[in-house]
């Protein structure tokens, strides 16, 4: 589609209205953001380090995003799954948990983002994080990860 320039900024009013609507839909309010370097899990296979926690609000939805660095010490790929997250003493239902990327390749280090969201309650992650996870290799070996850490110290 070709748009001709007029006396305004060269964008048709239809496009302006559409762009404004998109901008309004993705307006993100940062409620808190904090950097960390806390080891939360370590065994012969992986080391997991808490790097950052963000608390944002998008329209009526609050989200807590937890960023961890995962170092795979083995020469095999691992897949991760989360079964439980608690933030500041509040247990979150499985339907409110998300996990962005859940695979770390052999001998790689990468950052995982996971967290919770809610439209019904105020969220908080200023003091304590607790989670149960599993990681699996392609042979079907399953291992548990549990961390239960105060992050305000």
What would the keywords be for this entry?
10 strands; Immunoglobulin-like; single chain; five-stranded antiparallel sheet; mainly beta; disordered N terminus; 8% helix
- Count of the separate structural domains: 1
Number of strands: 10
Structural category = mainly beta
Pick out the low-confidence regions: 1-23
Assigned CATH class:
Mainly Beta
Roughly how many Å is the radius of gyration? 20 Å
CATH architecture: Sandwich
What kind of sheet is the major sheet?
5 strands, antiparallel
Helix content: under 10%
Strand content: over 45%
Shape: globular
The strand line-up of the biggest sheet is: 1-2-3-8-6
Order of helices and strands: HEEEEEEEEEE
Specify the number of helices.
1
CATH fold assignment: Immunoglobulin-like
- Arithmetic mean pLDDT: 86
């Amino acid at each position: 589609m070709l748009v001709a320039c007029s006396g305004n900024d060269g964008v048709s009013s239809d496009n302006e209205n559409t762009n404004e609507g998109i901008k309004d839909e993705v307006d993100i309010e940062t409620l808190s953001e904090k950097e960390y370097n806390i080891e939360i899990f370590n065994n012969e296979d992986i080391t997991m380090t808490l790097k950052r926690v963000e608390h944002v609000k998008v329209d009526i939805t609050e989200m807590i995003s937890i960023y961890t660095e995962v170092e795979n010490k083995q020469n095999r790929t691992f897949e991760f799954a989360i079964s439980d997250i608690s933030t500041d003493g509040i247990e979150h239902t499985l339907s409110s948990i998300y996990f962005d990327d859940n695979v770390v390749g052999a001998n790689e280090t990468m950052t995982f983002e996971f967290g919770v969201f809610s439209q019904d309650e105020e969220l908080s992650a200023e003091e304590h994080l607790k989670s149960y996870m599993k990681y699996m290799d392609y042979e079907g070996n399953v291992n548990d990860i549990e961390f239960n850490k105060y992050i305000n110290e």
